[in-house]
Amino acid sequence: MIVMKFGGTSVADSAALTSVLTIVTKTIDRSTKLLVVVSAASGTTNQLLELARMAVTDGDEAISLCKAIIMRHIRICNELIPAPDAACLDVSEIGNELTRYVEGIHFLNECTNQSLDKIASFGERFTSCILVHALRSVNVRCRLFDATSVMRTDDQYHKANVDFNETRRLCTRALIPEFDAHDVVVTQGYIGATPDGFVTTLGRGGSDYSAAILGSAVGAELIQIWTDVSGVFSADPRLVATARPIPSLSFSEVRELALYGARVLHPDTIKPAIDAGIAVAVLNTFRPDDEGTMITHVDVTHSRLHAVSIVRDCTFISGQTAELKNVLGHANIKSKILLESHSIERSSAVLISQTEESRTEIDVSLVGTGLEAKSASIIIATGPGATEASVLSAIATACTEHEIHELCNGMSRLSVFIVCRSESGADILNKIHGIVVN
Ligand code: ADP
Ligand code: ASP
Ligand code: MG
After folding, report:
1. Residue 42: predicted pLDDT
2. Nearest C-alpha to atom 8 of ligand 2 is from which residue?
3. Do 73 and 128 meet the contact criterion of CB atoms below 8 Å apart?
4. How remote is the CA of residue 197 from the centroid of ligand 2, in Å?
5. For residue 297, what pLDDT band results from cuts at 50, 70 and 90?
6. Does any ligand 2 atom lie closer than 6 A to the CB of residue 8?
7. What is the distance of C-alpha 320 from the center of its chain?
8. Which atom of ligand 2 is nearest to the CA of 205?
9. Residue 310 — very low, low, confident or very high, per pLDDT cuts 50/70/90?
């Protein structure tokens, strides 16, 4: 069996979904069973979260946004499916349910974390429903499967922890048998449910993770992540014009890249796949014949450095070790730590601080400590030779025109971190990428 996950841009509109139909039908021709995991159409999850918050205070605005979200999906049905009535009816029913929840939030004037996850789950419900109707319209034997019936999690809303054993047990009992009568089963990424049936989400970008968990639970031979770029690139192609796809990468290298800014994959994606020894391919929905990137447990060497990535909007804190360790122990700071380095006397840490709220939390935790905070970016360079002296020296040279807060090796020997001032990030990223491609 193959798991195919289609991301937000791959299901964003009828043109993208037409490519999805072609990819799926071509693969079934090769007589493989397919578990298709879909994201919400791009932008929808953000809109749904905004909708839930808006509903607390402004019922009319919320209802008009809700209608716009439903209409977007009805339009896709009309454009994509030759006889769209049944699909439109199902989408409308999902839309009516969404509307009732929005009205409920407005009535109570309160939106709990549980309600937010429930509302956020509708994006994937819309797209999975549309895809099933579209596949049936081209005679694919296919079934819509509710991911919340097997993806078992705790109740940590917005970033729920998956109960792998229970999820596997439920997949064996309820999901795998669906393939007896169907060639394709379509389900939702990103969402799960508690044992009591409350809907949860696995964190933003979590559909990749869903694909890997379900792939491992059903014993897939391959997990394909279909997105809008032709694989994992040597840098984010939106930031570095000369970035190019890397044909193969090891799990550990991709995980480091994903943890530090390469959002092409959710960092947790890799773990269930490594544990189950399943290869992951990253492919382009809009250029399906491109080679893409194959990720396996084998260490691959194309060059000493393979890729570079950046995390912006960070805060760099430095000062006396004892003071810093004390601050890093605060519950609201702990979850933001991206990098730490300690010597006996002095230490530093980089925290993710992308929102005003998190910057305030950091500032409050630093009051009276004597620690210094600066805005910063982290750049990570990865590859099998990342920590060799000649590579480190080339990286240091690439940074000479800039003030560098920190330059250090990662624990894995596959990575080097450069912590710099925010405004230097783009230039250093491009310069280090110059070393990657040479
Ligand atoms: P999807 O909606 O399919 O999950 P995402 O937007 O989450 O897609 O991820 C794909 C995007 O990841 C690309 O459009 C690209 O801008 C970005 N990206 C960041 N770093 C990289 C990288 N190293 N290689 C490829 N894409 C990257
Ligand atoms: N739709 C979810 C999000 O936007 C999950 C995903 O796209 O992977 O975060
Ligand atoms: Mg993604």
Report:
1. 97
2. 205
3. no
4. 21
5. confident
6. yes
7. 36
8. 8
9. very high
Nearest ligand 2 atom to alpha carbon 190: 5
- Residue 180 token pair: 């007896």
Q: What is the pLDDT of residues 118-138, one digit of tens each?
A: 999 999 999 999 999 999 999
Instruction: Find out whether 121 and 191 touch, Cβ atoms under 8 Å.
Output: yes
Say if ligand 1 is within 6 A of residue 229 CB. yes
* Structural tokens at position 2: 């193959």
DSSP characters over 172-220:
IIIIGGGGGT-SEEEEESSEEE-TT--EEE--TTTHHHHHHHHHHHHT-
pLDDT confidence of residue 270:
81
**Which amino acid residue places its CA nearest to atom 5 of ligand 2?**
205
Q: Which atom of ligand 1 is nearest to the CA of 266?
A: 7
Say if residues 311 and 326 touch (Cβ distance below 8 Å). Answer: no
Pocket mutation for ligand 1, best pick of 228, 233, 264 (most atoms within 8 Å of C-beta): 264
Q: Count the neighbouring beta carbons within 10 Å of the beta carbon of residue 120.
A: 25
Cβ count near 109 (within 10 Å): 10
Q: What is the 266 CA–ligand 3 centroid distance (Å)?
A: 6
Question: How close is the Cα of 204 to the center of ligand 3, in Å?
Answer: 8
d(CA 253, ligand 1 centre) in Å: 16
Per residue in 353-367, pLDDT tens?
888 888 888 888 898
Say what percent of the chain tops pLDDT 70: 100
- Ordered domains of the chain (ranges, CATH): 2-228 (3.40.1160.10), 307-437 (3.30.2130.10)
- Cβ–ligand 1 distance for 9 under 6 Å, the answer yes
Most confident stretch, 60-69, 262-271, 320-329? 60-69
Ligand 3 centroid to 41 CA: how many Å? 11
Nearest 10 degrees: CA dihedral of 124, 129, 134, 138? Answer: 120
User: Above 80 in pLDDT, residue 29?
Assistant: no
Tell me the one-letter amino acid at 45: T
pLDDT, average across residues 388-408 = 93
Ligand 3 geometric centre to CA of 225 (Å): 9
Closest CA to 325 of 304, 298, 349, 307: 349
Instruction: Decide if pLDDT at 437 tops 80.
Output: no
